[in-house]
């Protein structure tokens, strides 16, 4: 691992000039990703550029993906900054590229995924884990690119501690309603020595299925890539398509999306509260939180016609406007239910004792692993995609970013509660400012764009490339779960005992669907 | 614990009376489509099949004597409402959300096309 001293932060413009100084070429016309700065780097300078960006304070590697819609596979790195995003793209002619996760550890998950899907790998022969495609994926199995020459490995920490540790397999079928997920828990009986996950059971090939579809056909699958983030994923994808085609939305339509997004955050945080109660064995508290959750889901149905807010977003607009009267009438009661349950939980020592000092992550871990959402904010990092938008509803009505410092489960719970209160405030402002439905016709034009949204789990990114007929050549979805599962391993190993794992999982509130897609 | 006991007493029973009584929240749920056979032409059915994102619609008996039918699989339908948007004159929301059946085939329905005898 290369140690890097963070340098003073810079704007996207300063970073662009820095990369151009390293031999990068600023792409401005048809080949550029719209909505962000695009720098084309030669393979020989990619490593130096990654070093320079990773060493700059305030810059984080937000995503990395491959695209083989042209003759040569292109590797794109998306860098997040508080004022926006920057993309570097490099054509990879051979089967290898520089080992970028040695410089920016956040890239490791994507290195594994690119190897499975495209068959290209970082140089140096480092082992890469199986993430998305099942072990039985043969030559005919749908994948985005080429089959790797060797199957991915399963690399884990040493499984013996003084000869006493053993592996406790758990899953992939777990409890009622829980997603398929295999836990490899390595324990000496009480303390968690290591934990590793198999997430590929839920792979559905969503990105592969999106190829060749029009954006309006694709949104149906995008919403279902991670159903608990249907609005956020839909908005990020729609924004990418709108950037690619140069479509601007009416302010009322954008505010409709924002209302739906904040409702999505509210019900997710209520669900996470219920899951925390379940994991701590507090069934009465669980029931109280689930009452709040059910009221919020019913409110979603009354306001937008769907309990999980599917069908609100469409590329170019919003299919439904919120029923403002129903929302104003129902929101105080539903949120009040959650607030009362949360207040009672915060007064219950047996609950707080289980959360405090459990599953600790530091801000440095969160930064190195590129964590996002409440998990990162609970360590003190103010990462929030709502503040990265140059325009739109959150520029008119800024969201107050809620942070905490302890980095434990309790800090994550407090961040969620703070965000729920902020969502209620924002919804009121959006309704007062005016909302509406309607969509702009998307021109059938080629291009590519980047979109993003802040889901309840954190930043979702989407990149869409369109051909001249307006059909998708490559669509990349990067839900927050992709990032934060990486931090889950570290949180579980932070001097926790076996029974802390469900509590940590509830506080992360991630999905396997988003990871495996 | 006394806190939670007192909360429970104050809150009372909150579980729904469904299915003994209708659940009021059902009125705002998305439901699968209901078709008006008299307004469902072959051309319209073709547009609906292309529109459906979950392949819940298909044609049967196309090109055969005796007329075709639109086959609707409620088990594949996600109640997204796109079909009703495309052809409001022929498709409406059914309002029916109790879709349980004892066989898979019971979820599949055939809708005759307008102007085609069977």
Provide a descriptive summary of the structure in words:
The complex is a heterodimer of chains A (517) and B (118). By secondary structure, chain A is α+β, with helices and mostly antiparallel strands. Chain A folds into three domains: 12-122, Beta Polymerase, domain 2 (2-Layer Sandwich); 166-198, no CATH class; 206-516, Cytochrome-c3 Hydrogenase, chain B, CATH 1.10.645.10. Helices cover 41% and strands 17% of the residues of chain A. Chain A has 17 helices and 17 strands. Chain A has helices at residues 12-21, 43-54, 108-118, 206-210, 215-225, 230-245, 251-279, 283-304, 324-346, 349-355, 363-369, 373-377, 393-396, 409-433, 480-492, 501-508, 512-516; strands at residues 25-27, 33-34, 37-40, 60-67, 73-81, 84-92, 96-97, 121-122, 166-170, 182-187, 192-198, 313-314, 317-318, 438-439, 447-455, 458-466, 472-478. In chain A, the strands form five sheets. In chain A, strands 1-3-6-5-4 form a five-stranded mixed sheet. Chain A has a four-stranded mixed sheet with strand order 2-15-16-17. Chain A has a three-stranded antiparallel sheet with strand order 9-10-11, with no helix packed on it. In chain A, a hairpin with a 5-residue loop joins strand 4 and strand 5. In chain A, helix 8 (283-304) packs antiparallel against helix 9 (324-346). Chain A starts with 11 loop residues before the first helix and ends with a helix. With 118 residues, chain B is of the alpha+beta class. Chain B has a single domain, classed as Alpha-Beta Plaits, CATH 3.30.70. Helix content of chain B is 21%, strand content 17%. Chain B has helices at 2-11, 42-51, 82-86; strands at 33-35, 57-60, 69-73, 91-93, 108-112. Chain B has a three-stranded antiparallel sheet, with helices on one face. In chain B, strands 1-4 form a two-stranded antiparallel ribbon. In chain B, a hairpin with an 8-residue loop joins strand 2 (57-60) and strand 3. The longest helix of chain B is centred in the first third of the chain and has 10 residues, at 2-11. Chain B is elongated. The interface between A and B is medium-sized, with 19 and 15 residues.
């Amino acid at each position: 691992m290369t140690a890097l001293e963070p340098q003073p932060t810079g704007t996207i413009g300063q970073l662009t000039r820095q990369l151009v100084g390293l031999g990068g070429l600023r792409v401005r016309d048809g080949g550029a990703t719209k909505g962000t700065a695009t720098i084309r780097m030669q393979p020989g300078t990619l490593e130096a550029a990654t070093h320079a960006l990773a060493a700059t304070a305030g810059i984080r590697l937000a995503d990395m993906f491959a695209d083989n819609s042209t003759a040569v596979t292109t590797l794109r790195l998306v860098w997040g900054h508080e004022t926006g995003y920057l993309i570097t793209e490099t054509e990879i002619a051979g089967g290898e590229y520089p080992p970028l996760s040695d410089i920016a550890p956040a890239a490791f998950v994507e290195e594994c995924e690119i190897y499975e899907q495209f068959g290209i790998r970082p140089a140096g022969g480092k082992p890469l884990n199986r993430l998305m495609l099942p072990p039985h994926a043969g030559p005919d199995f749908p994948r985005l690119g080429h089959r790797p020459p060797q199957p991915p490995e399963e690399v884990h920490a040493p499984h013996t501690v003084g000869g006493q540790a053993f592996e406790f397999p758990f899953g992939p079928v777990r409890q009622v309603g829980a997603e398929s997920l295999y836990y490899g828990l390595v324990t000496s009986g009480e303390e968690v020595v290591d934990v590793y996950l198999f997430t590929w059971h839920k792979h559905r090939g969503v990105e592969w299925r999106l190829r060749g579809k029009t954006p309006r056909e694709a949104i149906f699958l995008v919403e279902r890539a991670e159903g608990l983030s249907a609005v956020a994923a839909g908005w990020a994808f729609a924004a990418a398509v709108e950037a690619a085609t140069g479509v601007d939305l009416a302010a009322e339509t954008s505010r409709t999306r924002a209302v739906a997004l904040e409702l999505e955050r509210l019900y997710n945080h209520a669900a996470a509260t219920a899951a925390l109660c379940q994991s701590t064995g507090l069934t009465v508290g669980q029931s109280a939180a689930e009452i709040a959750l059910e009221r919020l889901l019913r409110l979603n149905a009354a306001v937008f016609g769907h309990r999980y807010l599917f069908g609100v977003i469409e590329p170019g607009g919003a299919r439904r406007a919120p029923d403002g009267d129903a929302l104003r009438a129902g929101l105080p009661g539903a949120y009040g239910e959650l607030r009362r349950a949360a207040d009672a939980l915060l007064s219950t020592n047996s609950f707080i004792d289980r959360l405090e000092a459990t599953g600790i992550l530091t801000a440095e871990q969160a930064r190195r692993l590129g964590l996002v959402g409440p998990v990162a904010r609970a360590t003190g990092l103010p990462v929030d995609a709502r503040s990265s938008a140059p325009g739109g509803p959150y520029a008119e009505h800024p969201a107050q970013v809620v942070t905490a410092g302890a980095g434990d489960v309790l800090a994550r719970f407090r961040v969620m509660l703070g965000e729920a209160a902020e969502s209620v405030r924002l919804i009121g402002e959006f309704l007062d400012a005016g909302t509406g439905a309607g969509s702009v016709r998307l021109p059938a034009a080629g291009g590519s764009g980047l979109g993003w949204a802040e889901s309840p789990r954190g930043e979702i990114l989407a990149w869409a490339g369109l051909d001249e007929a307006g059909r998708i050549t490559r669509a990349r979805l990067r839900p927050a779960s992709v990032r934060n599962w990486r931090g889950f391993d570290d949180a579980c190993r932070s001097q926790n005992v076996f029974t802390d794992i469900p509590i940590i999982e509830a506080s992360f509130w991630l999905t396997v669907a988003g990871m495996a897609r | 614990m006394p806190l939670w006991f007192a909360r429970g007493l104050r809150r009372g029973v909150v579980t729904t009376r469904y299915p003994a009584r209708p659940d009021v929240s059902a009125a705002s749920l998305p439901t699968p489509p209901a078709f008006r056979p008299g307004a469902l032409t072959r051309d319209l059915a073709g547009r609906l099949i292309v529109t459906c994102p979950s392949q819940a619609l298909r044609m049967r008996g196309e090109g055969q004597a005796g007329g075709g039918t639109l086959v609707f699989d409620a088990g594949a339908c996600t109640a997204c409402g796109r079909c009703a948007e495309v052809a409001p004159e022929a498709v409406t929301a059914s309002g029916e959300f109790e879709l349980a059946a004892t066989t898979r085939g019971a979820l599949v329905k055939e809708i005759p096309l307008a102007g085609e005898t069977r």
